[in-house]
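Example 3.
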Amino acid sequence: MLMFKIAWRNIFRQKRRTILTVLTMFGGIVLSAISIGWADGTYNRIINMFTRNQLGHIQIHAVGYMDKPSMYKNIIGYDTVGVVIDETEAVSSWTPRLYSAGLISVGEKSVGAQIIGVDPEREELATRFSKKVIDGSGFGPEAGHQAILGKGVAKTLKATVGDEVVVFTQAADGSLANDLYTIAGIIESGNAAVDQTAFYLHLHDAQELLVLEGRVHEIAVVVRDLKDVGPVTGQLKDELSTEELEILPWQEFAHAFYMAMKADMMGAWIMLFIIILIVAIGVFNTVLMTVLERLREYGVLRAVGTQPVQVFRLVIYEVSIMAMLSIVVGLGLSILANYYLSQHGIPMPQEFTYGGMEFTHYYAEVNFRSLFIPGLTVLLAAVLVSLFPAAKAARTAPAKAMRTH
Amino acid sequence: MGIFLTPTATIGGEEIDIEEAIREIDELYRSKSSYSEIEMEIVTPHWQRTLAMEAWTIGMEKTFIRIMSPKKEKGLSTLRVGNEMWNYLPKTNKVMKIPPSMMMSSWMGSDFTNDDIVKEFSLFEDYSYEQILPSNDDSGLIYIKSIPREGLPVVWGYIVIVAQEEDYIPVRQEYYDEDGELFRVLTYHDVRDFGGRRIPATMELVPQNKEGHKTVIRYNELEFDIEIDDDIFSLRNLRAGR
């Protein structure tokens, strides 16, 4: 306790030195707290943008569909599956989809397209469908032989809203289906490759065309928060028959994207490591200098009978107190900074729209780990690097130390 | 495997003229004009159906095919002139041009592609050929490996044509891709007499990469070198869709 008291007084004896050391640690904490909050905020936003635009957080297919999509691997009675999904905690919405391919034609031009049957009301809740419609009114709530074309398809066919579009495809019973639809809209999903082939029909129109009444190929589930994806996936797997249905979180059905995100996050952690390393070297330098500067003082302490272990503790206490000070002040400021950035963000050099969402700012996020990780690392790093100077102070030979200066 | 490659060979003491064989196989279904009634049976693991159709051809240039049954598809027609192809869809009363990107897609739901209907190559002119003698020689058959000449727009690497030694009537065609992998087999059965020509009336196409799929084409009637109004091969006639 005595050593702690002396340590406390020592800190205020040399204010400039203390402020310098505290500033180094404080800077490290704020810097790493903001970079973590920033990275988390940006990643969550990208993941949300990616999943909420079209894919959903969780996808349900008939077993085998993901490996080898086929018209015949479909979900029968998707509305009963929907009831189970609705009863699951933390689910925000779900939407059914039917997929096939066919030949579509407007006037003299024709092109191969992916036919996507959607439920407009559910699709709106899950993926903000109507926001992506850049021309025309979009679907009405009821099936009315309307179609929405991807921007690229519309361009290839030189089609405009109000034109008639013919579809020629093979239905599930093998018959050659063809039908006529009115173009009710042009869609820009943000994914140009998708827009190059996408041909949307109302789910019931698509089911009728393809002779797949009551069936869908995919159910996309959107959860309230990204962190609910795991628990909801687990719960759906418990509730639904996994012999017939394959329930995958976005990390699995969008594996390439997930891996890219992970690699990128790895980069962010390396950045963080470098920041902490710089802080550690700074602290080491300051503490070592203080110890060398005060060798005479330690010599006196030793001469009056202070044990080496007490001197050792003295140095460690001083560093710890300074570290705690920096952490309290640093984390306080980090919360404020991250909160500000989460509310106001930083404007992007170039704004863009993706899948009906406007992106104008980068945003940070306030979360536990963006505070906990920097605080703990700086404290540990400071104590760890001061071990050597502390040992040096403890080993001071009194007579020799007092003769210098 | 023990495959000999020789331009001509002697089987049973009798000289086989490969050139002559190719020429005859080439000419087998060819004529100045033709009219036929065809049944196309399509089998998949999920369904099985038979389409009845009528077809008119002039030379290698023009083909017109109209589906007569089943009822749902009645009137559905395909017109080909040279390398261009159109479908007429009676339900919507529209003519749809098949874009080049869809040429490898299924024709009318069968295992034949649009390309199979459009492309008319002369084995004799567009392929180089050599006789191969498999070691497991079925007696009375000749095997000819036909390699498309450089730049010919086909998806296969080569075709092995199997024909009867005595009259060069084809028995089987095996299609291999560029890696030498067999991907479809076309077999000929049921040789019948159509207006003085002896022709296999049934052709069965079995894709090797789609289990449980096959398409059988049966000629119920086949007339050669008859008078055909050139108007049949017009978009106007296609659209008329009787």
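Helices of chain B lie at 18-27, 114-118, 123-126, 235-240. Residues 1-13 of chain B have pLDDT under 50 and may be disordered.
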